[in-house]
């Protein structure tokens, strides 16, 4: 079964929704039978590249409010993040253009490191306060998940994987996705936003049953005496 997730690395609800989905899969008993594919979405491609501006200024400008009011707004989001054991540090977060981050994720995915770089990019922005729009930061993150830094830098300095990124965005447009996170579960069910946890769990369960997946057994007790590979434990 495949679950597709459209998200952006500067969207606070995208990280929350990611954790909710992971919890739903873990609790479902279908781990190992569900593939999660992360898709690109750009909330604001006009954001300056290489900026290290605090997020409070742009947030205040967007909603025509004071910096202090913008800080108050983020407190509610931080509280929501704690529900899934994420400890957002809005004071350290930096505004970022995420085009290069999405290209890096596409490149990493082609090398079997898509899940690792997606998690690291979100962690870098929301927990570590790193400027994920900068090439040097992205190269370091790539190295941290086991990718070649030199190759990552060469890729980021060019235009590779832009087509793949914009293809995701076009598919989102065709699906009428207007905000993220957005989840498509087995091409049958859509979930928009970081919804209540029970909705994720119910939808994953419903789709898994309909797909004919076999739930893992819940083992009880410690392992007793048994025979395996032609040998019996008789001690």
List keywords for this structure.
single chain, 235 residues, alpha+beta, Glutaredoxin, four-stranded mixed beta sheet, Thioredoxin-like_sf, DSBA-like_thioredoxin_dom, DsbA family oxidoreductase, oxidoreductase activity
Helix content: 40-55%
Report the portion of residues in β strands: 5-15%
- Unreliable segments (pLDDT under 50, ≥5 consecutive)? none
CATH class: Alpha Beta
Structural class: alpha+beta
The biggest sheet amounts to:
4 strands, mixed
How many helices?
A: 9
Label the overall shape: globular
CATH superfamily: Glutaredoxin
Describe the protein:
- The protein is of the alpha+beta class and 235 residues long.
- It has a single domain (2-210), classed as 3-Layer(aba) Sandwich (Glutaredoxin), CATH 3.40.30.10.
- The chain is 47% helix and 10% strand.
- The protein contains nine helices and six strands.
- The strands form two sheets. It has a four-stranded mixed beta sheet with strand order 2-1-3-4, sandwiched between helices.
- Helix 1 crosses helix 9.
- It is globular.
Describe this structure in a few short sentences.
InterPro entries: DSBA-like_thioredoxin_dom, Thioredoxin-like_sf. With 235 residues, the chain is an alpha+beta fold. The chain has helices at 12-28, 56-62, 67-82, 99-110, 114-126, 135-144, 149-156, 162-174, 197-210; strands at 2-7, 35-40, 182-185, 189-192, 227-228, 231-232.
């Amino acid at each position: 079964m495949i679950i597709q997730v459209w998200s952006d690395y500067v969207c606070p609800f995208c990280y929350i929704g990611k954790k909710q989905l992971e919890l739903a899969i873990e609790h479902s008993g279908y781990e190992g039978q569900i593939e999660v594919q992360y898709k690109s979405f750009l909330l604001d491609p006009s954001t300056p590249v290489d900026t290290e501006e605090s997020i409070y200024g742009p947030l205040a400008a967007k909603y025509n409010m004071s910096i202090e009011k913008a800080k108050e707004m983020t407190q509610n989001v931080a509280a929501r993040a704690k529900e899934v054991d994420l400890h957002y540090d809005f004071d350290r977060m930096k505004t970022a253009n995420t085009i290069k981050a999405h290209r890096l994720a596409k490149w990493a995915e082609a090398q079997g490191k898509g899940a690792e770089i997606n998690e690291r990019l979100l962690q870098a922005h929301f927990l570590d306060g790193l400027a994920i729009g900068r090439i040097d930061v992205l190269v370091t993150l790539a190295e941290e998940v086991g990718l070649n830094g030199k190759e990552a830098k060469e890729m980021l300095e060019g235009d590779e994987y832009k087509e793949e990124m914009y293809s995701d965005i076009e598919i989102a447009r065709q699906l009428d996705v207007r905000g993220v996170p957005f989840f498509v579960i087995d091409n049958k069910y859509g979930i928009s936003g970081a919804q209540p946890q029970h909705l994720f769990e119910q939808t994953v369960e419903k789709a898994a049953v309909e797909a004919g997946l076999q739930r893992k057994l819940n083992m009880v007790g410690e392992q007793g005496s048994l025979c395996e590979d032609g040998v019996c434990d008789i001690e």
